[in-house]
TrEMBL record, chain A:
It comes from Lachancea fermentati (Zygosaccharomyces fermentati). It is found in: Nucleus, Nucleolus. This is U three protein 7. It comes from the Eukaryota. The keyword Nucleus applies. SMART domains: BING4CT, WD40.
UniProtKB/TrEMBL annotation, chain B:
GO terms for cellular component: small-subunit processome. One of its GO terms (biological process) is maturation of SSU-rRNA from tricistronic rRNA transcript (SSU-rRNA, 5.8S rRNA, LSU-rRNA). This is LAFE_0A06392g1_1. WD repeats lie at residues 63-105, 208-250, 294-335, 337-378. Coiled coil: none annotated. The keyword Kinase does not apply. It comes from the Eukaryota. Residues 433-452 have a biased composition (Basic and acidic residues). It comes from Lachancea fermentati (Zygosaccharomyces fermentati). Gene3D superfamilies: YVTN repeat-like/Quinoprotein amine dehydrogenase. It is found in: Nucleus, Nucleolus.
Length: 552, 477
């Protein structure tokens, strides 16, 4: 039975392989270039299309050359359930090197701990709430830096490599180097609770109690953007690794998506009825999972912002959620860690359940683990390893999760086995290719494409002329400033308050007009009062001023 | 339970010895490569900036140049690094371009040297010899050996001495323009009439003239070797075929043509440098319109030359600049100028298409890079790969506004900038005038830009040429 299934998998995989390498193309564009009349253009497009097809097929052909295979954990028979298998049993069954990677650090004093793995997975940064911060090469057991900061530490994250890390302390955020020497105090980042490093933009994004999202460029030291969420303290934060958009979770249950060049959120989603406790996004930016304090968990397709699954009744509220490179979904509730396979699909049978309840097509957990008498603080899948790191009250533990990691890394992108020389060269290369902060948008491939709407959206000359003349007419008829009202008392005049609001030391054309109108208003009011007092009568005309008026 | 986890053996990935290269496994799955296009764009932008940073087109001048303006440069089609130049004071110099030093220098003519060419090696007595032919205002054509340094009279204006001079051909008028057949021992000279000579005879074989009162330059086709073209002072361009010993076609342009160059890859196409600031590209099979018009110069184009690949042409102009055009584009991709360079009379691509040689009024012979940012040094494989990759990226993103702006930016002398502006105003007003006229005259014919410069129709030769020299010459030998 298992054999037939595996061949089935194989054929399905073959069908997928070439489509995996297609980047947004799906053959629909072919008709577009066939429509053009320009023969040269047509031939050029055809040539490009053929090149593209060849590139896809040759890239697909390299699949066979990949050296490693993905891990798995499968039940032998119907009665056996993979989520019942304990970590101790797994440790016995796997090879020695993997078993050795199941790290278990017992650190009772300074907990609860939050963890962060460097991008290539070689280094582990732990941060105890009570001020214990340590950076280590965890596989070699090599401690790089250890600090007792004697103040609350909320979270810590590595920057571009394991050479630098940022720690969010009680008030400010600090940057340390690999030996734990303090390099910078980021005094604009106050009371930070969550940090994300955007590696391709060299941006450190922070959010926390203040409700501000701040972006700091760590290569130039510039504060790139400060965005006010206006939604109170931020309760959860995650970055979309595909397009570098930052997702924030708030106390009112909304998830907002931010880019540094927009003062308002790109997208607002209502994802829970209570505070959002955690957000996770898969590596290709297709799916987002959120957990709320109202015991709900939701899975979204964030390409079109459609809700795939909504689980309203977790036994206890979820505290953390994570998605692995291979698409495993991990959720923690208090002491529990539960993992599902295939939860990121839209079909009904993939909706995550805790038990089968006697139904055959229910997506029961892939694995689960319990830390008795403990609480999980944060989780992260270890890059390129079949492990999930868990930071909890009593230290840090790595759980073995077969099939969680990307088996075949690309050494020119992120290399877990890189030498010091390679790391240095890579850093220079990534700095040269640093992407500008304001290029962050929902679609990362927007650059180099033709905006088909452009001609429709763009103003043509006629419309532009209409708009400008309309504006000119407004100023000509003084419609853009308050009206002259001789009836109101001097201090309440609209014109006066308008002048007050304008910057004092700037004199522009509009201000001059306002002053002139104000003068007019004043004289009209004066005249009115004179009439009231009976000093002049209604038809009185000041001939001199009238004659001079035409010069004014 | 069936279980497997990823377990990479460090032995497979980490080199055992420090001399070993470390493993760099690749995975082309797009999921592992986020921001692919944005990063490629950034790389392309950086590559474009680097290109502009490395753009140092001027290599240097050859030796100390000439004492008078350089009006003739002759390529050696068979040797990469040799070049002959001649100046207005009658001096000819033969250069070694790799050392940038002169091999020999001698006084060849009284007055202006008007034509020069290096004759094919296989026609010389010893296969390694190079012979040069020169003609001048002093009514002589002279055959020189370039391999000897015995031009004993070269210092004190004594002519016709030493072993260097092999032969002198005397004509009846001042010659203008000279070119040698690629294979046979024939050469043609321009002047009051166009004459075909044989190096072994002293009198011309044939007079090929067809109408023009004065032929200013002649050029043999290097592929279809019996075809040649000449330009006349009556603004005409005439094509000849030596197989029939007669002209074949003739057409007249509005202004004079200064130089002709045949496409080395497409034997039937040729480019001409015109006095009207443009260069034109013609197909000899249909001369009623130009294939392309190369605009950008702000003064007469004095010379034009194809790169040996046939992909690019270089033009030198009276506006003291050199421009490089892609054959398929109407505007130049590059402009070269220096503060000291005067009116450029000669530009030639070297035979490896990597360099350009220019001769100008100030007497210097300058050597330029054909692509300003390239260096000819030996490169490692990594360097080569990087450059190739960058080249591809630049090509891919060339239409992005930022990249386009940077790659097109050139410093242009103020004079030329001003002249460009004035020229634009003039052309615009002409265009405006024409459109205004067209509004009232419905029958006004539309003349495409590629036909504007052609006057009348293309004349086909019908045999009614005066043929009087054919028989005369045979008697003399």
């Amino acid at each position: 039975m298992s054999k037939s299934r595996s061949t089935g998998n194989q054929s399905k995989k073959d069908g997928n392989t070439s489509s995996k390498f297609e980047r947004g193309h799906n053959g629909t564009h072919k008709s577009q270039y066939l429509k053009t009349k320009d023969k040269k253009l047509k031939a050029g497009l055809k040539r490009i299309d053929e090149k593209y097809k060849q590139a896809v097929s040759s890239a697909a052909a390299t699949e066979y050359l990949l050296p490693e295979a993905q891990g798995y954990l499968e039940a032998e028979n119907e009665m056996e359930k993979t989520f019942r298998i304990r970590q101790s049993e797994i440790k016995d069954a796997v090879d020695v090197t993997t078993a050795a990677k199941a790290l278990d650090l017992k650190l009772k004093e300074f907990g609860p701990y939050s963890i962060n793995y460097s991008r290539n997975g070689t280094h582990l940064l732990i941060c105890g709430r009570k001020g214990h911060v340590a950076s280590m090469d965890w596989r070699k057991g090599d401690l790089r830096a250890e600090m007792y900061l004697n103040e609350t530490c909320q979270t810590a994250t590595y920057l571009q490599s394991e050479q630098y890390f940022a720690v969010a302390q009680k008030k400010y955020t600090f940057i340390y180097d690999h030996e734990g020497v303090e390099l910078h105090r980021l005094k604009q980042h106050i009371e930070v609770k969550h940090m994300e490093f955007l590696p391709y933009h060299y941006l450190l994004a922070t959010a926390g109690q203040t409700g501000w999202l701040k972006y700091q460029d760590v290569s130039t030291g510039q504060l790139v953007a400060e965005l006010r969420t206006k939604l109170g303290p931020t309760s959860a934060m995650a970055q979309n690794p595909w397009n570098a958009v930052v997702h924030l979770g708030h106390a009112n249950g909304t998830v907002t998506l931010w880019a540094p060049n927009m003062p308002t959120p790109l997208v607002r989603l209502l994802s829970a009825r209570g505070p959002i406790t955690s957000i996770a996004i898969d590596r290709q930016g297709y799916y987002m999972a959120t957990t709320g304090a109202d015991k709900s968990m939701k899975i979204w397709d964030i390409r079109n912002f459609r809700e795939l699954h909504s689980i309203e009744n977790l036994p206890t509220p979820g505290s953390n959620v994570a998605i692995s490179d291979t698409g495993l979904l991990a959720v923690t509730r208090g002491p529990h860690v539960t993992l599902w396979k295939d939860a990121l699909r839209s079909s009904k049978s993939s909706r995550p359940y805790f038990g089968s309840s006697g139904f055959s097509d229910r997506n029961t957990p892939y694995m689960s683990h319990l830390f008795p008498g403990n609480r999980v603080n944060n989780i992260q899948f270890v890059p390129f390893e079949d492990l999930i790191g868990v930071g909890h009250e009593n230290g840090v533990t790595n759980l073995i999760v077969p099939g969680a990691g990307e088996a075949n890394y690309d050494a020119l992108e992120i290399n877990p086995f890189e030498t010091a020389k390679q790391r240095q060269e890579q850093e220079v290369r990534t700095l040269l290719n640093k992407l500008p902060a304001d290029s962050i948008a929902l679609d990362p491939n927007v650059i180099g494409t033709v905006d088909n709407r452009a001609s429709a959206v763009r103003l043509n000359a006629k419309a532009l002329a209409e708009i400008t003349t309309e504006k000119e007419n407004l100023s000509r008829s003084n419609k853009d400033i308050p009206d002259v009202k001789p009836d109101v008392k001097g201090k309440n005049s609209g014109l006066r308050s308008f002048l007050r609001k304008k910057t004092q030391n700037v004199i522009d054309e509009r201000k001059i007009r306002v002053q002139k109108q104000l003068e007019k208003e004043k004289s009209a009011r004066h005249r009115k009062e004179m009439i009231k007092r009976g000093e002049i009568d209604e038809e009185h005309k000041d001939l001199v001023s009238e004659a001079l008026n035409r010069f004014g | 339970m069936k279980i497997k986890t990823i377990s990479r053996s460090a032995d497979d990935y980490v080199p055992v010895k420090s001399t070993q290269e470390s493993q760099l496994p690749r995975n082309l799955d797009p999921a592992l490569h986020p921001f692919e296009r944005a990063r490629e764009y950034t790389k392309a932008l950086n590559a474009t900036k680097l290109e502009r940073m490395f753009a140092k087109p001027f290599v240097g001048q050859l030796g100390y140049g000439h004492r008078d303006g350089v009006y003739v440069i002759a390529k050696n089609y068979h040797v990469l690094n040799k070049l002959a130049t001649a100046s207005a004071d009658g001096i000819i110099k033969y250069w070694n371009m790799s050392t940038r030093e002169e091999i020999c220098s001698y006084k060849a003519h009284y007055g202006l040297v008007t034509g020069l060419c290096v004759s094919p090696q296989h026609l010389s007595k010893h296969s390694k010899d190079n012979y040069m032919l020169s003609c001048g205002d002093d009514r002589t054509v002279k055959l020189w050996s370039a391999n000897t340094d015995d031009f004993s009279g070269n210092e004190n204006d004594k002519l016709d001495s030493g072993k260097g001079l092999l032969k002198t051909f005397h004509g009846e008028y001042a010659f203008q323009g000279l070119d040698h057949h690629r294979e046979k021992s024939n050469f043609v000279t321009g002047g009051a009439e166009i004459q075909l000579w044989d190096t072994s005879r002293t009198k011309p074989l044939t007079n090929l003239s067809w109408g023009a009162d004065n032929v200013t330059s002649v050029k043999f086709n290097q592929n279809e070797t019996d075809i040649l073209a000449s330009t006349g002072s009556d603004n005409s361009i005439v094509l000849y075929d030596l197989r029939t010993n007669s002209p074949t076609q003739k057409f007249v342009q509005r202004m004079r043509t200064n130089a002709i160059c045949w496409n080395p890859m497409e034997a039937y196409n040729f480019a001409v440098a015109n006095e009207d600031h443009n260069a034109y590209y013609y197909d000899m099979r249909n001369l009623s319109r130009a294939l392309h018009v190369y605009k950008d110069h702000v003064s007469a184009v004095m010379d034009v030359d194809f790169s040996p690949t046939g992909e690019e042409i270089v033009t030198g102009s009276y506006d003291k600049t050199i421009r490089i055009f892609n054959v398929k584009h109407g505007h130049s991709r590059e402009i070269y100028h220096t503060k000291r360079m005067q009116h450029v009379f000669q530009v030639k691509y070297t035979m490896d298409s990597k360099y350009i040689v220019s001769g100008s009024d100030d007497g210097n012979v300058r050597l330029w890079r054909a692509s300003a940012w390239e260096r000819s040094s030996v490169k490692t494989t990594r360097e080569k790969n990087k450059l190739e990759y960058d080249e591809k990226l630049k090509e891919r993103f060339k239409n992005m506004p930022e990249i386009k702006r940077i790659s097109r930016h050139r410093h242009v002398p103020k004079v030329i900038k001003k002249a460009q502006e004035i020229k634009k105003v003039e052309l615009d007003s002409l265009k405006r005038r024409e459109t205004n006229e067209r509004k009232t005259r419905k029958d006004m014919p539309f003349v495409p830009e590629r036909k504007k410069q052609i006057v009348g129709v293309v004349h086909k030769y019908d045999g009614k040429r005066k043929m009087n020299t054919d028989n005369d010459n045979d008697d003399d030998n």
